[in-house]
Design goal:
Helix content: 10-25%
CATH class of the largest domain: Alpha Beta
CATH topology of the largest domain: D-amino Acid Aminotransferase, Chain A, domain 1
Enzyme class: ligase
Structural class: alpha+beta
Oligomer: single chain
Order of helices and strands: EEEEHEHEEHEHEEEEEHEEEEE
Shape: globular
Number of helices: 5
Number of domains: 2
Organism: Rhizobium freirei PRF 81
Radius of gyration: 25 Å
Keywords: Ligase, Plasmid
Largest sheet: 6 strands, mixed
Number of strands: 18
Distance between the termini: 84 Å
EC number: 6.5.1.1
GO molecular function: ATP binding; DNA ligase (ATP) activity
Length: 350
Amino acid sequence: MTKPPRSKPLVRDTEAPIRSKPRVKRNPAQPQLLFDPMPDRVEPALAQLKSHPPKGDKWSWEVKWDGYRLAVHIEPQGIRILTRGGHDWTHRFPAILEAARALGPATMIIDGEAVVLDAEGRPDFGLLQQSLGASGKQAGNRASDAIFYAFDLIYFDGHDLRGVEYRSRRHLLDDLLTGKDGGIRLSETLDAEPAVLLEHVCRLGLEGIVGKHLDRPYRSGRTGDWVKIKCVQSEALFIVGYEMSSASPAGFGSLVLAAYRGADLVHVGSVGTGFKETETIRLRKMLDKLRWKRKQPPLPYSGSSDIVWVEPTLIAEIEFRAWTWDGKLRHPSYKGLRERQDNADVFRLD
């Protein structure tokens, strides 16, 4: 009887101890985490503007929130609330800070938008801007009214989730926040055809909808993984001057606006609606401190109006219906000032 063939040893040296692969080295700042160190900051994923929703069933849809983009970091050392530009605004959102403390002790980075809701429960950018104050100093009395609507989970309990597809990140976020109704709430996904959703949210007076590709990882910048479709267009634009007003000598008649074309600023029209009287007086004082001291205006201008030019420093959020054939805003309305720390992108003309 022949002997069965001798099997090869599982390891070459049968006397040597079997060893597993070495573990990832611990991060000294996070001694309890064996896996991925928490990023100090993540550049946010941004949505590309589209005129129509993309086709297919690979997209998840939700309301487009009209506020300030934030990242809530719940870390071993404490909690940080960072703006899109990386500035620490933790002290300016006490209700969000309190809600974040209740989510611990797990470590996480939650991506979302801070909003202030009006009497009808709709996000109002003007109310948010008023609550934070226009000069970037300590928050005003309404800062506690801000709510953080969470729509993505970037890091959780020692795991960097940026390489994970959106459907899985969203599943974890749903488990974490479903049922929460305090300072941090879940941005609900909407289960309907995007065209129907858009019609519905526009009728409710909301800004639009955002779609996220279910199979894509979290990638910073405008990659096309996220898209937005707006009911009414709204963009951040430089204030480069103002027209005087005989009716309001302490205010102004309208603000002159500019956008980028390449590296240059170009005139895109003026806005004279959407202001309260107190806002025009406050803005006029700010603008007079920024008066343009050179002979030539800060951009080419062919209009006949007598403009008081200012340094292109202040950024305003402007709502409008469309663009005219010559690159001017149609039916613009002022929504509020953007703060420099918010890192809002000034609109760029193609």
